[in-house]
Structure formats: structure tokens, C-alpha cells
Amino acid sequence: MRTVTPSADHFALTVEQISNVVVRPDITLTQVPAPSRLAPFALALTGEPTDPDSDAFSGRFVLLHDPDGVDEWGGTFRAVIFARAELETDLLNDDLVREVAWSWISESVSHLEITELGGTVTSNAGQSFGTLSDRPADGFVEVRASWTPTEDEHGAPVDNLGSHLSAWINVMVCAGGLVPLPEGIAHVGHVRRRG
């Protein structure tokens, strides 16, 4: 019989917590291979609109766990998120677009017990010229952030880590300009799994 280490127990519990998160019906999550070099335990999900004709936003959530801890993290767990959304060019030219995009993150994690929050916001607007001048101007905003969940004296996260996944989903909702909806019906436990 295999002995399960406390760290494996902690990570298994967080995966279970994440599997129980209720997701909006207009967002599809897909479990994808997690980065294997960053930590001994990892989980990765991508998010996109359920509507196959929409590519208005996309994102990625990665949860890392190294039972030995990582100095740069300040703990043994690390949440890493990414969200990208198309924006109207006039919004991208607004000097405040990056501050607004960062507020999506700071507001989404404001109720969590975390440390070491950091990230970047990138905005890019493009305009076509010459024979391509009839194409509409386009652009996007990308937000990347990571943070360390606060742990108790036993090394377990203080928060239910499902709430960290929900924070990332909220960032995608803000980035994609989705209208807030009542609680959805699909569970992360029923997400697609990709190789």
C-alpha cells in the first residue's frame, strides 16, 4: 500500500476543491497538460467562450505546488493566471486601459488570503494600411498575474483554492465584457480533458 504524503494530500484536496467550482454556462474550461518543470505537482486549465464562433477572450489557470517551498513564491503553492481579450481600438488607445485591466485582477482576488501578488498588463492596437486598409482596426489586452495562497501551520492553503479558480474566471468575465449572470450550471469536474 502506497503512503500518501501530506503534500500530496494537500494537492489532492485542492484539485477536489477546484473540481467543485460552479462555472458560468457561457465559459468552457478544458484541462490541459500542466507544466512539469515548475513544480512537482501542477494542474492547468484553459478557458474560452462556449460559443464556438466567438474568440473574444481566452485564458489559462495554472496551480503549482512544491512541498519544499519556493523562495520567490513565499510558500508552497502558486496560482498563475493569464487572460486575453479583444478590445475596441478606442478603448486600447485610452491611457487608463492598463490600470483598468489590472483592477480586474486586484478586485477579483480582493477577498482571498494571498501574498506576493504581481503581474503585467499588455495592450496592443493594430491598424492596416495599403491594400489591407479596408480591414477594421483591431487590438487586444492581455493580463498575466500570479500570487501565493496563504497557508496555515500545517502547510495547507487557508482559502478553498476553488475560490482562486473563480477569481481567474472573473478576470476572464471582465476582460471579455460578459454580463454578470446568476450562478451557472456546469461544474469544472465535467470539463473537457485534452491529451
Helix-strand layout with pairing:
Layout: H1 6-19, E1 22-23, E2 27-32, E3 41-49, E4 57-70, E5 75-86, H2 89-92, H3 97-108, E6 114-126, E7 138-149, H4 162-176, E8 186-187, E9 192-193
Helix pairs in contact: 1-4, 3-4
Percentage of β-strand residues? 35-45%
- What's the story with the biggest beta sheet? 7 strands, mixed
Query: What is the H/E order?
Result: HEEEEEHHEEHEE
Using only C-alpha atoms, the radius of gyration works out to 18 Å
Give the uncertain stretches in residue-range form.
1-5, 181-195
Q: What strand line-up does the widest sheet have?
A: 6-7-5-4-3-2-9
Shape: elongated
Structural class: alpha+beta
Helix content: 10-25%
Give the number of DSSP strands.
Answer: 9
Mean pLDDT: 82
Number of helices: 4
Distance between the termini: 29 Å
What does this structure look like?
The chain contains four helices and nine strands; from the N terminus they run αβββββααββαββ. With 195 residues, it is α+β, with helices and mostly antiparallel strands. The protein has a domain at 6-80 and 99-121 and 144-178. The strands form two sheets. The protein has a seven-stranded mixed sheet, covered by helices on one side. β2 and β3 (41-49) form a beta hairpin.
What's this, in brief?
With 195 residues, this protein is an alpha+beta fold. The protein contains four helices and nine strands.
